[in-house]
Amino acid sequence: MQCTLTVKMLFPPFYPLYAVNVIFTPTTGAGNSGLTAIIHTFARRVQTKIKDLLQQMEEGLRTADPHDCSAYTGWTGIALLYLQLYRVTCDQTHLLRSLDYVKRTLRNLNGRRVTFLCGDAGPLAVGAVVYHKLRSDGESQECIAKLLQLQRSIVCQDSDLPDELLYGRAGYLYALLYLNTEIGPGTLCESAVREVVTAIIESGKALSREERKAERCPLLYQWHRKQYVGAAHGMAGIYYMLMQPAAKVDQETLAEMVKPSIDYVRHKRFRSGNYPSSLSNETDRLVHWCHGASGVIHMLMQAYKVFREEKYLKDAMECSDVIWQRGLLRKGYGLCHGTAGNGYAFLSLYHLTQDRKYLYRACKFAEWCLDYGAHGCRIPDRPYSLFEGMAGAIHFLSDVLAPETSRFPAFELSSSQMDKKM
Fold it and tell me: Is the distance from CB of 278 to CB of 205 less than 8 angstroms?
């Protein structure tokens, strides 16, 4: 259920929308001291809230499911949070805390699922990165070797494995790309990545032929017999991964397969600027990372980076307006279907455009998260987890403090300055 309040109702008198081009610029002189004080006050509020929420989270995790090792709702997500806090603060205690959770997950791998968010690939990839940062190369390589052992089931076209991010091939692909960006290029051989990319592309081509959509949408995907659109279960998340530079998809495939498929999805947009949860759904309701504009926007931004066509940037900006108008959610503060996940859309668009309007919008969504628990939001099933609960909000708040290097966890990869619009 979406919140009926609008963001404008939350604007304090000293934070007018017209000031977005100056309030984030360090200033000197008596005339600008008030704005500088606002910036510092906001940063202190965020830092204080992070400490408060971390304490609440740790206390709450005492009763969490001891067997949930996933990044989505389990211990790997908490390890990712502490890895993020180490990244933005360089405080070694956060890295060691991440290691504590990594060790817990590696003792409890179950082998039933293979993706980064919901399977064994997540604990193994995060473990490899944490051990690498601690210079424990033997343990890091052991994690990588176990991750690669999962690949056989991923590339088998006869399996019933889907292609989407949470439970499918794109989720395993992310784990490989994550290692090559966090540890370094060449951590995994190119053939490992290429095999997974090929499997995803062949699967999409097969369904497109089956549905007789090869000309309109060369790469078509479904999950549980429904052709989802969004980032979590749908085509936006899959296309987004295929467009990552680290995936090394050849230009011909990008131009002839991925690009027309993206355009097919674009044409399913509602008049409001939002997107349906699936191709068959005509209800304009959800504005989440998992379903709706908040996830599709990442596909559009990546398409703009790859193809350099203004239509993708224009559509992304229109998505951001939808999120701004409808993105404060009573469903919660988390990443998958909450305010923090929606806020990341603004941070990513700020990276791309360097337009401070989007940084301002991210900060306003962060301000909503500073009143965590005060809005009557639904309490999620895993209230302290990364993708459903408190850990995701903490992750977002920490990135608001360091917006130039922010990235949506378990989805966006480290980006270079070249990704920004020149």
Answer: no
C-alpha distances out from residue 107 to 64, 114, 131, Å:
16, 16, 15
Report the C-alpha gap between 196 and 208 in whole angstroms: 19
Nearest Cα residue to 76 out of 419, 344, 410: 410
> In this structure, what token pair is assigned to residue 191?
């053939």
Predicted pLDDT at 110: 83
Separation between Cα atoms, residue 136 and residue 112, nearest integer Å: 27
Both tokens of 39, joined, read 């910036």
| CA 125 – CA 175 distance, rounded (Å) | 6
Task: Show binding-site residues for Zn(2+).
Answer: 290, 336-337
Closest by Cα among 304, 406, 364 to 23 = 364
Residues at the binding site are: 290, 336-337
pLDDT in tens, 245-264: 999 999 999 999 999 999 99
| Total-model pTM | 0.91
In order of 26, 90, 123, 402, the CA distances from 391 in angstroms are: 30, 19, 16, 17
Q: Long-range pairs for 238-242 at CB < 8 Å and ≥24 separation?
A: 238/163, 238/164, 238/165, 238/170, 238/200, 238/204, 239/265, 239/299, 239/302, 239/303, 240/298, 240/299, 240/302, 240/411, 241/165, 241/170, 241/173, 241/174, 241/177, 241/200, 242/170, 242/197, 242/200, 242/201
